[in-house]
């Protein structure tokens, strides 16, 4: 049995009485607004933000949201840190906000309504009462209230860095119920921000989590790096929930001019809104079509989620990260070929970055697919000709890198995966790269056409595996996971390792026929002067080849690429 205290019951009865009166005013206001014509494009629209610290300009999404509003909109942020749905009203802040006579009020509370906050915490009944009051009083004032579900706290599960256990779920449910009951627009920030953070993982969210004095990170508020990220979510949801506002909401934030030191680039991507674009795809869309000279796009450190496509008609695009920031400039995707979301490119399911254009270059960037070890999940697919990657990382499990068409050059890169994690039919050279096998598997799965004398060529690369005791100086495990150098995706697969250092994770036999003995007659697998614990020419399968000194001389960049010179003079 539950009891309601007398004074709480009295407050509730008073509220109910007022609510009925306000409901009548709400109906009249709604009817009046429906009879009014939609505002013209040159009218000034006023939006007022009401909420706690996660809505403010300095610690929330407020300033980032404002960057997505056209000049025809005035946005006033009245939110205040540490306030709950109750305290904001009791302090007279809501009365002042109503005095601004806005067209729209965006209202988000919940964080400080939770238990344990003296003078601010509310019971669930009280929370519903106050949130309903915001709706009714905004409508009575002739405005449109828009309820916003709370920004998700980054409360990651201790065992799973990709799972958030949100303490706000029950209050978020109340907000949704009020929106349905009152027929007012709803911005679903909680679930979208939760999903976004889960994709990035605990570590990925640190880039926009304020650092605490004790060295830890604040999982509630936002640093400057998160303002535009989450402001974008609110703006996009508002555009959906209130179609009348759609002409006033931008797809990209108001572009800031790059800093003077960045003026040599054609575009600057910065997720915090300090560049010319906040997404890589937007910068690519703005690049000239059918260009004949490089269009250089600087990508500032950050984690950029979602698929990216460089179409065939956008040649000469160069994506560059800042030197020494390769690990902090990440183009990431979290789906495999069996999964889709609203933004999935249908022809490229499970693929993070797709390069169709020729003369593409990338440097100092990490490409990753975080779907995990349960199916094909590409970090990068390259179909263009004359493509170069320098000092980049490609991270995944199965099918990490599809070097699929044309001529491709990888220099000083780190590539990791487990099954067939470098695959396709391109003519590709990997020079001075680290090729890391995760838990055994197969390094390559080439599908080289029969008429090509070269396929994948690894020049002076280092092959490492999990675990890597020869690197760490620890005793070797008794039964470490082992990997094959490759297996033929197509019968005439062509792969050569030239002067490469191989860890003990490489199987003595080296190569696999993919359960097709007939492939042994056609596959072209060779090595030259392999070194390290995994180099074992005597034990290699008899249908592979150890090159002679004269034969190895054919493996030059000029000869492999037919005269194309990937390195700048």
Tags for this model:
569 residues, alpha/beta, Pectate Lyase C-like, 3 domains, 8-stranded parallel beta sheet, 12 helices, 23% strand, disordered N terminus
Question: What is the alpha-carbon Rg in Å?
Answer: 29 Å
At the fourth level of CATH, the homologous superfamily of the largest domain is: SGNH hydrolase
Structural class: alpha/beta
Counted beta strands: 31
Per CATH, the architecture of the largest domain is 3-Layer(aba) Sandwich
Distance between the termini: 82 Å
CATH class of the largest domain: Alpha Beta
Name the overall outline.
elongated
Q: What percent of residues adopt helix (DSSP H or I)?
A: 10-25%
Largest sheet: 11 strands, parallel
What is the spatial order of strands in the main beta sheet? 6-7-10-13-16-19-22-25-28-30-31
Q: What is the average of the pLDDT values?
A: 89
Structure annotation, total helices = 12
Low-confidence stretches: 1-41
Task: Report the portion of residues in β strands.
Answer: 15-25%
Please name the CATH topology of the largest domain. Rossmann fold
> What count of structural domains?
3
């Amino acid at each position: 049995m539950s009891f309601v205290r007398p004074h709480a019951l009295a407050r509730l009865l008073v509220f109910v009485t007022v609510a009925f009166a306000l409901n009548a005013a709400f109906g009249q206001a709604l009817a009046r607004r429906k009879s009014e014509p939609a505002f013209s494009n040159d009218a000034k629209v006023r939006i007022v933000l009401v909420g706690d610290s996660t809505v403010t300009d300095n610690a929330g999404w407020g300033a980032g949201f404002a960057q997505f509003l056209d000049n025809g909109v005035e946005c006033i942020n009245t939110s205040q840190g540490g306030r709950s749905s109750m305290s904001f009203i009791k302090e007279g802040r809501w009365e002042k906000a109503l005095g601004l006579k806005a067209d729209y009020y965006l209202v988000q509370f919940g964080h400080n309504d939770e238990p344990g906050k003296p003078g601010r915490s509310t019971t669930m009944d009280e929370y519903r009462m106050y949130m309903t009051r915001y709706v009714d009083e905004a409508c009575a004032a002739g405005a449109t209230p828009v309820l916003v579900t709370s920004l998700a706290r980054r409360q990651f599960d201790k065992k799973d860095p990709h799972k958030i256990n949100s303490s706000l779920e029950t209050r978020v449910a109340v907000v949704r119920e009020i929106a349905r009951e009152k027929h007012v627009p709803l911005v679903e920030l909680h679930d979208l921000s939760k999903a976004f953070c889960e994709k990035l993982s605990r570590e990925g969210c640190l880039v926009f989590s304020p650092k605490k004095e004790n060295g830890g990170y604040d999982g509630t508020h936002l640093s400057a790096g998160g303002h535009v990220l989450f402001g974008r979510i609110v703006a996009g949801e508002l555009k959906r929930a209130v179609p009348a506002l759609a002409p006033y909401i931008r797809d990209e934030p108001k572009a800031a001019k790059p800093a003077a030191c960045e003026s040599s680039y054609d575009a600057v991507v910065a997720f915090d809104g300090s560049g010319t674009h906040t997404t890589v795809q937007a910068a690519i869309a703005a690049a000239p079509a059918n260009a004949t000279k490089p269009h250089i796009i600087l990508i500032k450190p950050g984690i950029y989620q979602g698929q990216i496509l460089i179409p065939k008609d956008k040649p000469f695009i160069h994506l560059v990260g800042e030197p020494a920031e390769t690990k902090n400039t990440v183009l990431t995707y979290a789906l495999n070929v069996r999964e889709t979301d609203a933004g999935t490119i249908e022809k490229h399911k499970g693929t993070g970055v797709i390069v169709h254009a020729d003369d593409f270059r990338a440097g100092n960037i990490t490409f990753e697919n975080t779907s995990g070890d349960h199916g094909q999940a590409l970090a990068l697919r390259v179909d263009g000709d004359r493509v170069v990657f320098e000092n980049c990382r490609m991270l995944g499990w199965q099918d990490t890198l599809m070097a699929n068409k044309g001529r491709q050059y990888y220099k000083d890169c780190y590539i990791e995966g487990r099954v067939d994690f470098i695959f396709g039919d391109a003519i590709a050279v990997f020079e001075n790269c680290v090729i890391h096998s995760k838990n055994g598997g197969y390094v390559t799965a080439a599908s080289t056409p029969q008429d090509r004398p070269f396929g994948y060529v690894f020049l002076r690369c280092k092959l490492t595996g999990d675990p890597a005791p020869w690197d760490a100086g620890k005793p070797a495990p008794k039964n470490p996971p082992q990997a094959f150098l490759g297996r033929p995706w197509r019968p005439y697969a062509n792969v050569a390792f030239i002067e490469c250092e191989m860890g003990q994770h490489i199987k003595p036999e080296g190569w696999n026929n993919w359960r097709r003995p007939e492939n042994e007659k056609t596959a072209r697998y060779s090595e030259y002067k392999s070194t390290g614990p995994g180099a074992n020419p005597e034990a290699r399968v008899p249908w592979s080849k150890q090159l002679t000194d004269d034969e190895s001389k054919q493996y030059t960049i000029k000869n492999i690429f037919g005269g194309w010179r990937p390195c700048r003079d």
